[in-house]
Design brief:
Layout lengths: L7 H57 L18 H7 L12 E7 L16 E8 L7 E8 L22
Antiparallel strand pairs: 1-2, 2-3
Length: 169
């Protein structure tokens, strides 16, 4: 009777050890996926902040270079940063590693009646688009619609004065 039971305890032990190892592998894989997911989320947030920094740097340059807008709108393909914009912004390196972290380009809004022409602006409104290129897996873009109002001279004798405080000149 004892001869027939020989080795059955070893078989049960091996099955239990295999089940525990499989469970440990599943838990390790779940933890790795969770860590990877939180890393993608973190770099995604950092990429949005990077793109916002580029937009903030580009806004005054775009506003002061209205005459340079024509001919530099993104129309199709891979966007490129106009030379006047790149020069005006200066360094695109936010973290000091010597590599550009963002790129900025401008594109026209859909302002034509009928067929849109993305190379021509008719209403003095364009999009400034900033793309964070620092994180290869999580490239993010931020765009803002801006309006060119022209500026001009403020005359104290005009109706409303310079600051819109009625006619109290």
């Amino acid at each position: 009777m004892r001869q027939q039971e020989r080795g059955s305890a070893m078989l049960v032990t091996m099955i239990l050890v295999a089940a525990l190892l499989a469970g440990a592998a599943v838990i390790a894989a779940m933890q790795m996926a969770s860590t990877r997911g939180s890393d993608v989320t973190r770099t995604g947030m950092s990429a949005v902040y990077c793109a916002e920094a580029g937009l903030s740097a580009a806004r005054p340059v775009v506003a002061s270079n209205y005459a340079s807008w024509a001919g530099t709108f993104y129309t199709s393909g891979t966007p490129t940063e106009p030379t006047w914009l790149s020069t005006g912004i200066g360094s695109h390196d936010l973290d000091g590693d010597g590599n550009a972290d963002f790129m900025v380009y401008i594109k026209d809004n859909d302002d034509e009646i009928g067929t849109n022409n993305p190379a021509v602006d008719n209403d003095l409104r364009i999009f400034i688009v900033s793309r964070c290129i620092k994180y290869g897996e999580t490239i993010k873009e931020v765009e803002e619609l801006v309006t060119y109002s022209g500026g001009g001279t403020c005359y104290h004798s005009q109706s409303g004065n310079c600051f819109g405080n009625n006619n109290a000149n």
